[in-house]
Amino acid sequence: MVRMSAQERREVVVRAAVVEFARGGYHGTSTETIARRSGVSQPYVFRLFPGKQALFLAAATRCLAQITARLVCAAEGLSGEDARRAMANAYTRVIVKEPENLLMQMQVYAAAAAAEADGNHAFAEAVREPWQELWDAVHLKTGADIAGTTTFVARGMLVNTLVSLGFPAGHRVWNGLDPSAGIRALEGFADGARTGEAGSGAHGDGPAGGDAAGPS
Q1: Among 69, 90, 87, 91, residue whose Cα is nearest residue 78
Q2: Which mean pLDDT values do the consecutive 10-residue runs of the chain (216 residues) have?
């Protein structure tokens, strides 16, 4: 049996943390649960991370950095509307294939808000940082002005909200978006949440058209 390095085990723990925090949130998830999913002991988790906050930050950073990297990769060599369309398609595929990334995003927002309410401004700022990097990457890649980036990212937030709340495809709240965004995202999210695998639309082309949703 091949022994994993500390870095490899750290990666396993972070992946497990994304899944568990996505489901239970910061306060509802124990390091013991994450250790169990990782196949390591709880004391070993604390050898890798100084505390639960550090582990949550690692999970949040991984989730948002992965999304950022996929959007940037999708838009490689493109600009303007072509870049926005490619990133919107890539983002829809992320939701379809990896619903934990959508759930983790929502937990990031909740954790930052709770930290601010508790006066833990440093933790809140650290949680916000990888999301700001996502924003900056989208803004730079599309070459849009602030208003254009705001609209693009806001559509992604709307998709996040509608999928998280379970609004069915075809409901009137989806009318301002390309209908395929709702259908693909909802079907893939439901399949992925049930099986932990990619949904039936995972390898499709994603939504097209000027109303395609962006990331959030």
Answers
A1: 87
A2: 81 96 96 96 94 96 94 90 88 84 94 96 94 92 84 88 84 75 52 44 33 49
